[in-house]
Predict the 3D structure of the following.
Amino acid sequence: MFWLTSICASMACGLPVQAGEVSNVEVRANQVVLHFNDAIDSASSFVLSGPDRIAIDVKGATAGTKATNRDGMFRTVRMAQYDIDTARIVLDLDRPAMISSGSFSQDGRSLTLSVTEVGSAELRGVLAAPRQSFVPPAEFRAEPPPRRYSVRIPMPKPSKAPPLPKIEGPNDKSRPLVVIDAGHGGHDPGAISPHDGTHESKVTLAVARAIRDELLKSGRVRVALTRDSDAFLVLQERYGIARRLGADLFISVHADAAASQTARGATIYTLSEVASDREAARLAARENKADILNGVNLSDAPSDVSSILIDLTQRETMNLSADFARLLRREGENKMNFRTDSHRFASLMVLKAPDVPSVLLETGYVSNADDVALLNTPAYRRRIAESVSQAITVFFARKLASR
């Protein structure tokens, strides 16, 4: 039995929090100076993109209201209370940048951060880097607030892996097995259309079923769906099902939302530790957090799965994945609406099975009125399914011929 200790919020318990306030955020051309009216514990920063911004968390502090924005690369400065013990400052940028250095004053009452502009190639490394930490002088460091009250509640034992889905199609294990993954589901609806309220999770399930039906009609491959209902699966369970079944191909189906409602068209993603562009990085950052709900990480997978590295075996798998992506683009040319740059690379968790060629098919954007209208029609879903089925036929025929 596991036990979780949670601390009552000071306001709920009627106790004041002893913390320094971020009394002012002073913005200069290439510097940010945080001022505190009392000692704080520490600070850390990290970089985000889409849009470009820098977040700074100040532990042992409360958020003030004063922020001066004079000039330079900063659009706006926002400040709010992130949690009971942390103030968060967000710097909205007009171009990519990073914090290159930072230091506290001798009395610990101010923190000066130097901000440096970065190029698109350098930004990829910055986005993947861990937080930068800044600690005031020990004699001026605030002590964490005392834990006066706690509640202990029993936590259930970790659940076992989900049952394997039914494999449909020819009763012949020599036939290739394709696993179709309908993205999102259950309490995770995914993107929601601003036009008609369509949930991404419902679109993906409908498309996955259409692909399954088309593949079963061909009689050439065996098929399994990771989910055939409105159920929730954590990311590792999705590709974990493909690995446990010994799948020969894994296709994860999505229908994302874009920042602009004019963006439309299908995109095929394959795995890369470095995203091909900022939009791919944005997608990876959001999708990889699909297991985290209300601050609770649900993806407590075994270490032999969660610590998979990109090794030689996976590099070969990545090459096969890219081959299938090109085939799908070719076979869907006259049936699907693709974006111009339709094959992209992203570090997506759901594609990280080291031994199963995998692609993520963004069928369109539910944020676009035309795309969501198409995706809600059986005729267009059938056209997607036909494209996928034809690409799969060629993919496995080529593999067989190369043996």
Summary: The radius of gyration is 25 Å. Residues 270 and 359 are 5 Å apart (CA to CA). The first helix runs from residue 10 to 13.
